[in-house]
Design brief:
The structure is a single chain. This protein has one domain (about 75-290): Fumarylacetoacetase-like, C-terminal domain (Fumarylacetoacetate hydrolase, domain 2), CATH 3.90.850. It contains ten helices and 14 strands. The protein has helices at about 5-10, 15-20, 20-25, 35-40, 55-75, 85-90, 145-150, 170-175, 195-205, 230-240; strands spanning about 75-80, 100-105, 105-110, 110-115, 125-130, 150-160, 185, 190, 205-210, 215-220, 255, 265, 270-275, 285-290. Strands 1, 2, 3, 5, 6, 7, 8, 11 and 12 form a nine-stranded mixed sheet that branches. It has a five-stranded mixed sheet with strand order 4-14-13-9-10, with no helix packed on it. Helix 4 packs across helix 5. The longest helix has 19 residues, at about 55-75.
Amino acid sequence: MNFLGKLFFCAPLVWILSLAPNLFAHEPLPGTAPWLLENYLTKTPIHTFPASIDLEEAKRIQEEFVKLVGTDLGQQAGYKAGLTNPSAQKRFGLTHPLRGILLKKMLLQSGAVVESNFGAVPMCEGDLMVRVGSAEINNAKTPRDVLAALDVVIPFIELPDLLFEKGAQLSAPMIIAANVGARMGVLGEPIAIAPTLAWEERFLQMTIEVFDQNGLKLAKGKGDTLLGNPLKVVLWLRDSLKAEGKNLKKGDLLSLGTLTQMIPVIPGLAIKAVYKGLDPEGPVEVLVKFK
């Protein structure tokens, strides 16, 4: 690792940002982790990305990029799946989702108030999260096995940062390198789950509706939007890690993908996501406001 790489790896991001005019005077090479970091810190939309970077190189860039942002955003909290809708995969010539990494300080609690310009291209979407309750998840074969190895499901509003400007010709390597848009997210109350047929049905049939501060419905979605079954997303995340010699562990949080269309974030917007059919006790909500 060169001097600049060591500097980024060891120093807090606030300090790095204060030195940005000097550190970036020579401009990092496009497509590198320091180049992504510069755009991430300055919230500057990216115009182009080197076409020569393939999926494997993009994964390496993602790991380095996450190490850099992790100096300020804390340890790894889990993973996120992107492109969990087959039609979205088709646009990028893929037959599978993409994986990103979640860090602890990215995750806020329901009711959080967030700067509306939290990212280069800030967005909001209804999502769903689960928590690994047992390392047996690494041996799961069926959705019922998955349920047995999870302990809670968590209503989740993801606040992704698309990072690339509108109109950019996105590719799968671009999305992977930029950590699949992971920036922030808002967690609802955890709901205990059990390995039963009733819970399998809840994951499939649950619905979400997203409203603004005036009660206007902005988006809606259903559980089976996620690979036809949200529990299959867990299996895909597990298998994608296994292919790289990694395992899920107890406590890992897994964001299963967007249930709704993305909503652009503007100042003054307040979002309420209402989940029905997920909690046996009744509808649950997640709230976030933007200033």
